[in-house]
């Protein structure tokens, strides 16, 4: 997955972000809409097709959504119109048509008690049967989005009634009973934001603390490993400005926040001006394992994010080391395709002692919309993006690391470019196992037929793309690389969803 | 110069590109407009404000110019309207107002013999006195651009008359006598393209050969070290599709071209369908030295370009090594700010044995137009662009390489970010000498007052930005790093313009 | 209401259009999306803020909506993507924010049987209580639009169940029982389009026949005065291409259609490839009268539309005659402000014998967005739009007809302009009674406080605007002018809603 | 020329406007850029493709140009950046490509004394030979525009030198000697604006006085019939804010100006803060006649403009009367196609006593870019723009006035529409003679081959378009209608260019 085009082949569907100003902080000081906007910029790699922010001032909801990149949508002072001391945001990738502003999140609906806004990362395995049930109830659905289904489930009042106003926890638990995975949610009513992770913990979600004056950006995971009795754990010197939640912790430093808690699988946390409070942990139906998506480590997440107490970059580096152990090769230099598998390449280099060099420079001005008509030039399109640093590899044997192979269309032209520019040999090492199965939990993967790993084995692929050798990391190797860095947490089980690699899905598939 | 904003602080003014289809090649096969467009994408780092292409079919000239990036301007089939078997292109940065489509190049004018189109990289030292002379002659000038001055000088007929049609070489020599530096030019009449470099060779320019089928992308500098008797040197197996010229060789691989010749200072080369022919070498007025801009090596050029027979990346690596020799420091890791001084950091690491690691990851989705109102968030703006890879440097002493310091505004927040994220010490090493003087030859440098090197020395700067130490490369060190890799070429003198660092200008300044 | 700005003061909310290709006609021949698009262009005066078209091919629904004018939204071949042999369209004006693409119609929802699309002209008097009931049922509502309420009412299954598929007539009758006015609707399922007019007939709606070859554009109202036994009334030589429905008949000639039937108050007509069929006439709850909006005659409708068997232009001309009878004046010329009350002015001239002349020419290039900062120029803004044809009225006494007065801001500057240009006297005659009351049935009228008729009587207004006299048409006069031309139709009662003039609403207002 | 498309068939090329604030008026009070902008809006009918304004504050020139309509170009506060107390503006139509921002006027050039700006309406008959002479002098020309030629002629210093600064009058006279027609010019240097009309007076130009407080908008032509001794004619109560010049007087009321002087053929008037001063009247080379374009009366000018002391509307009305005298017909109603020949139709009605009625209503929302693919709908395109007011003409004999016939494509479908809607007979009367010859003086007329009058006579055309009769106005009739209203001015000859109708050109054509 060497370049932007491939990025579209394998795409996480969303990023979510929430912010609630701390007690006593004025709207100007909290600057909630800006904080969310910056948070979304930090999650932009999780979706570039549309984005939205909804805030509320305890009374009215303010919404702004649009197609395109976060920094293009929220221009021209439109953030000023997003008033209030709390809000949620969303950034989205979708396979739907580009004009589908209708599907942009967060969704806002009016309910009998108040408006609510919902932002969702993930995909409901039983969305179809839920849709059908609603249609039979006579509810017209105006989009094809899972999030509309979630929203309508949330508007359903609990059977016991709600004599004292809305019982949102009961409504959220009802939602969690109706569908088990995969979702991470931010749900805002007029008083607070609920953040929820599905019982299998398939999509990531974490909580941060935004201090007025930043002295350290180091995470405080140990101090806040639980959110019960949260109030006693907050010191005065914490000097809190706001509480935030995000799909990934990488969005925290840009707003001056620190990571304080990773939302547990099945956990419901309420963010209010007084701080986050853990309200419940709903267990999965099948007790076998938590199932956090292993591909977040392999490819989706930004390298500076933390999951399960470890930095993604470090895990990727361990993948490279593991690959060097499993599949060493005699070579002169180790390298990678820019901005793809750099940590894995460093890991491979450290394990083998073969020096790391750069073999390609990237032209960052290549636009996506650029079209060349002639065949001759189309065949050279990889050369438009990458320039060979010939003096670094001419006449040398190169080990080229990549993070994963999807359709297998990009690696061939890169190898050709390196060889035309003088590489003696090119050995490809893929820092993940063959990708063979569809994902129904929030990742956009090409069809089974399009995945090259279903069409040929590593040796055949090596021949096809012109590599002198090509080896994947083993599934066990990947699991070892991921899990060996997770610190034992009392009573917390470790487990990952490897469905796209192994075909083993966390829940039964139902159509 | 760590990031995009700084890039605008110090900016080369232009890139030029030319293409002439070889004899017997059809317009469809040559695909000239596409080749130029791709060539300009490869020169986009030399100017992002506007771009233009002019082609001609031996009869009519076809022009398309626009504000913005190459890939945005040349969309929607507009390349198809740029007909013909030759053309020139230009990409430009300018300090002028954004709406100045008037100033976009190439300039096209009608002359008594035919239309000509002119693309120009550089800046005329005596532009003002030339303008005044023209105004006295009763010629109205409609732009403030040097290129209009050049164009009007070219339309001036030689005093001896031109009994047999236009004598373009005489006209170009007249132009070269009127002004000596700095310019690299592409001049197209209806039959051919002339490419010209000023007698001091201040701005770069090179020539390439575009083959029908690409087997090797290695440069053929040795084979074509002279363009006299060019025809005898072209083999049949060269299988030439077109001849191209470019400000930098980095734009050649993307169109399948190989570098064949670096235009010599003062050289006039004519590109026709039969190939490039060297017509003359006009010597400089002051014989002291050639004066190729040393900052092309330091910062402007793309790392994969070749100048004077050496790859820019390699020169930068030598700068890092030289810096390690001049100013070593005890530390745990060496690193750089992403996409800035990576080769220098590798050089420093190799020389010292201190391991190279990545300390920051870059958010490539940060838009330029993004605005945050509150002070608190503005102070964090560097955090929006870079995420700390904390596990790679927490508790460690970091050597941080940068290529140059202009205003000195960016490095401070980066150091603060690294320290807040846990760096024990941060030692800054700048791979070039202090930048102190304005450039009048084509580089956009802030005023003397804005350059931080005119306000404080290295020690004071270290204190101001919070570095534990900060050292520049010496001017001699830079010259050594650049010149030690240049292969002796018979009769060719070596020399570089270091005016912005040393204050020594190649020609007398005249106002 | 002399000019474009005023037009926004008093605005019908929508226009709807439908088309169903006749049996045996191919999609290419029927060209449904283009027919609807042209139909909407003919209804553009009923709403310029957004527009949309939904078609269906018996299987999939195809939707395209956008902000702005019809001719801007449906460009660039996007009509080709609207496939199928039937469709509905909508053009809309709204007080909601300009970016509210969410609220654009037609609305499309999925139901248990099929998708349906709904286009709506009008406003529900009891929308608020209907909304609340739905929210209590646990249905989340995502817009503030009445049309979402209508759509959700339509998705409600009849209590008796629908053993043999959807019973749309039962569902539509249920909808009609829940709310009585005001609406004209086009509802498309995958087989047909239902067009419905509320029991009071408040908003207009009519049906047309689109012939393959156009020989006459004259309406065939007499031949098709009922749609029962429709099939026996269609001759072979009718040569039908498609059946269409529209808010106004003025959109028919541009597609080659003829007006065949005005949908009766409370009538449900189904358009299928076999032709229109009247399915039911639902009577109003209060039997007192039909209540077709009289202001459609006064101002909203296009002059070439037919309502109740008479041309709107003719009715307006009768208003002018009636005004001349009620309030004659000695004068030299009769005139009007361009494109406003021309028919009334002709009527006044015919009745009195005072010659009609043009006093102003209109600058049709005045843009809406144009802004002038200085007070002096702002006071002249009416002069920007209208140029005085001085030789036609210098030294003369002018009677100036206008159709209505809303805020009363425009007429003053016009009178001033005429007098500065030499008019001896200016007598204003308004071809409708004073506008005093809000409309809750689909017209956007300023608040009671903003209506000038609630602030001063005719005499005071004359003084304020500088008129030598100013008289309104009486309510009885207007009713006479409207109703005297309606041909007696057996069993059909005649009646009009005059709420905005008289304060008498057709149904009880409920909040 | 019934509609917008035809309007593009026959198009005046430009409108020019100038404004100079009176002595002692502050820039804020004068609001020069806004005045020019409004003036251009009033000239928008003379060119809709691009527009520009240049102002100067005695020091710097400020320029803003753009493609499109005046009200779109000058938005968003850009007028504020056009500083200073004088300026000129231009609005333009051109056959050149839509992206030719290069050709937008006013042109600004630097000269040896100061910048000058030039705005031009007209076309130089000898442009080609002037271009060639310049190219031979070694001046490169960067556009194909006549205005660049004019601008370069103006930069030429008079042979006697200019010892005391620029002698602009000498330069303008030199320009006027080089080319005799057709042009009206506004030339701004840093102190004043010169307005110039060619010796034949082919294109219109007039001067106005902008008062601080407007009491009357009546022209003061008699008072200012000469601009010599202008100062003695200006009273204190004139209370002058600024002096303006315009192609047509119709742009004066919108800024509160009154018409004071029509620039005479060959006259050079200088506008300074002290008022307009007539500097010279350059006689034509051929003394035979003045040659003001008669088509300005027929079609181009706005009906409320004054030429030669008479209102254009009145002249057109006389054309209709003349036509009724020349070619009467028995009929029931007289009418016209909306916004085309209304005054002529009134004239015809007055002369014959046949009542005037409206037969068509215009849909003003029809966009220009709208495209319909099917043939059936394309044939109906005239119905999209015009709706038949059937009750006004069903069963009646209609006389339909039009101002002129160019290609003859529009009138046929209109007649068809009227007949399909029930007209018994349609008799066409054209209020001008057959259009047969090209114009080389500033009007864009189709080629000889495209003009229908060169292909068939009136009778043949009647048959082709389906008219029951079709008659043109005679050339003598037109000249009578135009000239009978011109008041005898002492010593001033009357004469008009009728070249497009008669083939007689005012000067010898030279290629």
TrEMBL record, chains A, B, C, D:
Give residues annotated as binding [4Fe-4S] cluster. 293, 439, 497, 500
Q: What is its EC number?
A: 2.4.2.14
Q: Which residues form the active site?
A: 14 (nucleophile)
Q: Which cofactor does it need?
A: [4Fe-4S] cluster; Mg(2+)
Reaction it catalyzes: 5-phospho-beta-D-ribosylamine + L-glutamate + diphosphate = 5-phospho-alpha-D-ribose 1-diphosphate + L-glutamine + H2O
Cofactor note as given:
Binds 1 [4Fe-4S] cluster per subunit. Binds 1 Mg(2+) ion per subunit.
Q: Which InterPro entries does this chain map to?
A: GATase_2_dom, Ntn_hydrolases_N, PRTase-like, PRTase_dom, PurF, PurF_N
Q: Which GO terms describe its molecular function?
A: amidophosphoribosyltransferase activity; iron-sulfur cluster binding; metal ion binding
An example Gene Ontology biological process: 'de novo' IMP biosynthetic process
Question: Any idea what this protein is called?
Answer: Amidophosphoribosyltransferase
| Provenance organism | Nematostella vectensis
